Amino acid sequence: MKNIYASWSEVPTHKFTEIANYKFAKDELTKEIQTLSILSDYTIEEIEKMKPAQFKSAINKISFFESEIDHTQSKFKWNLKKLEDITMDDFISYEKLRGEKENIAEILSFMSVLSVEEIKNMSIVDTLNGFFLLKKHLKRFIQSSLISSMAKTMKLILKEKLQFWKKKKLK
Q1: pLDDT in tens, 95-109
Q2: Is the dihedral of CA 19, 25, 29, 30 positive or negative?
Q3: According to the model, what pLDDT value does residue 104 have?
Q4: Which of 66, 106, 116, 119 gets the most CB atoms within 10 Å of its CB?
Q5: Widest pairwise Cα distance in the chain
Q6: pLDDT at position 170, please?
Q7: Rounded to whole angstroms, how far apart are CA atoms 75 and 86?
Q8: Could you report the per-residue pLDDT of 56-75, keeping only the tens digit for each?
C-alpha cells in the first residue's frame, strides 16, 4: 500500500499549498478522488482502479481533511529574526509577500534561518505555528513602534509649545 497522510501534522507545507490552490470538482466523489491523490502517493488513475473497500479505507484515512488545523500542536521551536534588525527594504519585501497563501514558506524563510525548501517540506502544523507566531510578533512590534512614534511626536509638540511660551515670557 502506498503512503497516505493520516493527520495534518504529517502533511508537508507544499502539499497544503497544492490543496489550497487546487480547483476541485463540484461532485463529491470526484472531489474525494482528487483530495486522495494529493494526500497520498496514488495517482488519480490508480485511485479510479481501486476496489470500493480499498477506496473507502483510503478515504477514511484522510478524514482529518475535514477538520481544522491546530497549529498549537506544533513541537517545532521557531527562531524568528527580531523585527528591529530588519531593514525597510526587507519590510517592504515582507509586505509584498504577505497577501498570498502560497508565500507562507517564503515569508517564514525570510524571517528565520530556514530555507524555503526546508519550510515547504515541514509539517503544515509547524509552518502555520511559525506564521502565527510571526504575525503576533509583528503586531507587537507595530504597536510598540506606534506608541514610540506618538511619544516622540508629543515631545516635539510640547517642546515647540514650551519654546513659544519662553519667547512670550522674554518679551
Answers
A1: 787 766 678 888 888
A2: negative
A3: 83
A4: 119
A5: 99
A6: 54
A7: 26
A8: 999 999 999 889 999 888 98
Q: Which three cell numbers stand for residue 95?
A: 509586505
Are the beta carbons of 16 and 129 closer than 8 angstroms? no
3-state helix/strand/coil string of the chain = CCCECCCHHHCEHHHHHHHHHCCCCCCHHHHHHHHHHHCECCCHHHHHCCCHHHHHHHHHHCHHHHCCCCHHHCCCCCCCCCHHHCCHHHHHHHHHHCCCHHHHHHHHHHHCCCCHHHHHHCEHHHHHHHHHHHHHHHHHHHHHHHHHHHHHHHHHHHHHHHHHHHHHHHC
Which cell numbers in the block locate residue 26? 463540484
